[in-house]
Write a structure and sequence with these properties.
CATH topology of the largest domain: NADH Oxidase
CATH superfamily of the largest domain: NADH Oxidase
Radius of gyration: 22 Å
Strand content: 5-15%
Order of helices and strands: HHHHEHEHEHEH
Number of helices: 8
Strand order of the largest sheet: 1-2-4-3
Number of domains: 2
Number of strands: 4
CATH architecture of the largest domain: 3-Layer(aba) Sandwich
Length: about 200
């Protein structure tokens, strides 16, 4: 009887620890995963060298984007690689934030090709494009390249200047290149785990 009581007390104590994440060090692997190290090292780079990217680097990034998961595997996303001097100059008319990168990946979503949640009609196109964009950033980082997510742009100007994007809503832009600047002061600022996540 005593053992059962002690076990219950222990279970309650462990439940409290899990809910508060105070036992997190015991639950994490002792060695940081390769992905976690990459995710922590990656930062928003806002200054690039004028060194061009190779076709191999661009193709690696595109392949990572191509295999990104999308809802019901609908893949309602397209990526445009802006790299000619003329196209890069044209893009500057739609955003102030190309940061001198030699390549900018533009990611667009097509709403009428996307999965739609039946309960409330939520369209997944923009979420799918965000997943593709995340793959672009992480693969660029894995290749040792700087990158940044840009959401500040004039979509109407892009549509007018880049007729190739017709039928797609532009979701995000990704300047990519060889970094010429370190991470900013805010890079490492994150919420504590007990604020960020809750077990229920």
């Amino acid at each position: 009887m005593k053992n059962k009581f002690l076990k219950k007390i222990s279970d309650i104590s462990n439940l409290h620890k899990r809910a508060a994440f105070s036992d997190l060090p015991d639950r994490l692997p002792s060695k940081e995963s390769v992905f976690q190290a990459l995710a922590k090292e990656r930062y928003s780079c806002r200054q690039f060298k004028d060194t061009p990217l190779t076709d191999v680097q661009i193709n690696h990034i595109l392949e990572a984007a191509r295999v990104a998961p999308t809802a019901a595997n609908r893949q309602p996303v397209h990526v445009w690689v802006v790299k000619s001097p003329e196209a890069l100059e044209k893009l500057k008319g739609a955003t102030d934030y190309t940061y001198g990168a030699p390549v900018v990946f533009m990611v667009g979503a097509k709403a009428d090709a996307a999965w739609v949640r039946k309960y409330d009609g939520k369209n997944g196109a923009e979420i799918d494009a965000a997943i593709v964009g995340t793959h672009i950033m992480l693969e660029a980082s894995a290749l040792g390249l700087g990158n940044v997510w840009v959401g500040s742009f004039d979509p109407a100007k892009i549509k007018a200047d880049f007729p190739e994007t017709a039928g797609y809503e532009m979701v995000c832009l990704f300047p990519v290149g060889h970094a010429a600047a370190e991470a900013g002061a805010n890079h490492a600022k994150r919420q504590e785990m007990d604020i960020f996540a809750t077990e229920i």
